[in-house]
Amino acid sequence: MGSVEKQTEVFDSEAASSMVKELRDEFLSGKSRSYEWRVTQLKNILKMSEDREQDIVKALHSDLAKPELESSIYEISMLKNACTLAIKKLKHWMKPEKVKTSLISFPSSAEIVSEPLGVVLVISPWNYPFLLSLDPVVGAIAAGNAVVLKPSEIAPATSSLLAKLVGEYLDNSLIRVVEGAVAETSALLEQKWDKICYTGNSRVGRIVMAAAAKHLTPVLLELGGKCPAVVDSSINLKVAARRIVAGKWGCNNGQTCVAVDYILTTKDVALKLVDALKHELEGFYGKNQLESKDLSCIVNSNHFARLTKLLDEDKVSGKIVHGGERDKAKLKIAPTILLDVPQDSLIMNEEIFGPLLPIFTVEKVESSFDVINSGTKPLAAYLFTDNKKLKEQFVMAVSAGGLLINDTVIHLAVDALPFGGVQESGMGSYHGKFSFDAFSHKKGVLYRSFAGDAPVRYPPYTNGKLTFMKALMSGSILGVLCALIGLSKN
Ligand code: NAD
């Protein structure tokens, strides 16, 4: 375990370069490759999450007024689950995977060896600043890499706590935290990494990818976008409404990458859905929802201004059917529902990432899929229906990072599913075994002996050798036998 030092000196390109060199030298010593080192670090993350749960909850409250239940379950427990799974499965994940060989290499055996990439950079965002910082780090450590974590400056209490905890609990010769904003991140991005994992918006995603391209560094980009929820008729609206409310306002007050961004439904369902949502909101957060302690605040005044701009647009402000109240001093915006906002409004064209929920009506529920596909590919798309055919159409027609039918957000907690976006919502994925794979190189290894050294592939080339090689390449044993007979004639 390393010492705890507050980063006081300027962190520029030179400082970044010497840090990466130190980490690379240590990585090359082979220390992080051992199973023991990996498991020890993962256990230390688990211990840190347990020992310091209250400090983490406090930091998240300071940054986001995040309710304790949300911090404890959606950040700390999720991270602990990721660690526990990695610890349990690591031996199995690290084991080379035996694979079949082909006739062309007969006799031989083959395996896929997972090797660490080297020194990796993890850049994380402010909305789940604890989980989204350490969840990729768990994958990077499990895969045997050295890691630098750059948490978000927009959640300063969690960033500083992460620096302190990583200093106290983890092996700092291979795992570091660099705090800072654009200048520090830019200095980090100038360095040569073996992988960069970035979670955040797609504008910065492009900056990260351009910087990575200079060194041919692979990237895992966990981005966002507008996640739609399609609501069909003849469903249990009460359950649907509860699940939409829980996955929107109950997850960091809408500041979640997979929160429902907007709803698509038919006119006949829309009003009933609004009533059901209002009812559940009141049951969850009371009559004065702006004051509820169970709702996070907006992270800062810039995001507050961004959200109120969406709400105050002329063509949108008259469409509020619930909420709309705000308190600038406390950075609070009440859960707000809007009905029939125009498709060309700002709120329908930007990722909302906050407590506003527009409902957009369509003639037929099936047309929702065209509306979704007319935009950029979302990180998640949801459908509420009992109709089997509609489910099938949705799965076939809608391209998104992931799909969830009849609920919101909880697909993230299924570690057998990859979590990641597609096109504008990201590239690559992690969670469970996918996290280990995301930070590993899959090295194909073929083993041969000196026996069975058939001369057919060596010059001088003959027609017989050609026929035999063609048969071998086609994988047909019969063809090989025929060619052998042919060969023996030559
Ligand atoms: P953010 O502002 O905290 O930025 C993310 C990181 O990028 C920070 O560490 C920040 O320091 C760094 N950064 C900012 N500007 C930079 C620059 N010019 N150059 C280099 N680095 C820079 O977070 P955000 O972008 O506001 O996060 C919200 C977005 O992230 C949303 O779009 C959301 O959907 C997405 N998101 C995606 C996931 C996912 O898992 N796919 C999870 C959470 C958030």
In words, what does this structure look like?
The protein is of the alpha/beta class and 490 residues long. The chain folds into 3 domains: 13-94 and 112-223 and 431-438, Aldehyde Dehydrogenase, Chain A, domain 1, CATH 3.40.605.10; 228-418, Aldehyde Dehydrogenase, Chain A, domain 2 (3-Layer(aba) Sandwich), CATH 3.40.309; 463-489, no CATH class. The protein is built from 17 helices and 18 strands. The chain has a 7-stranded mixed β-sheet with strand order 10-13-14-9-8-15-16, sandwiched between helices. It has a 6-stranded mixed β-sheet with strand order 5-4-3-6-7-17, sandwiched between helices. A 3-stranded antiparallel β-sheet has the order 1-2-18. Strand 11 and strand 12 form a beta hairpin. It starts with 12 loop residues before the first helix and ends with a helix. Residues 1-5 have low confidence and may be disordered. Bound molecules: nicotinamide-adenine-dinucleotide. Nicotinamide-adenine-dinucleotide (NAD) is lined by residues 123-127, 132, 150, 152-154, 181-182, 185-186, 199-201, 204, 207, 222-224, 257, 351, 353, 379, 421, 426. Residues 123-127, 132, 150, 152-154, 181-182, 185-186, 199-201, 204, 207, 222-224, 257, 351, 353, 379, 421, 426 line the site of nicotinamide-adenine-dinucleotide.
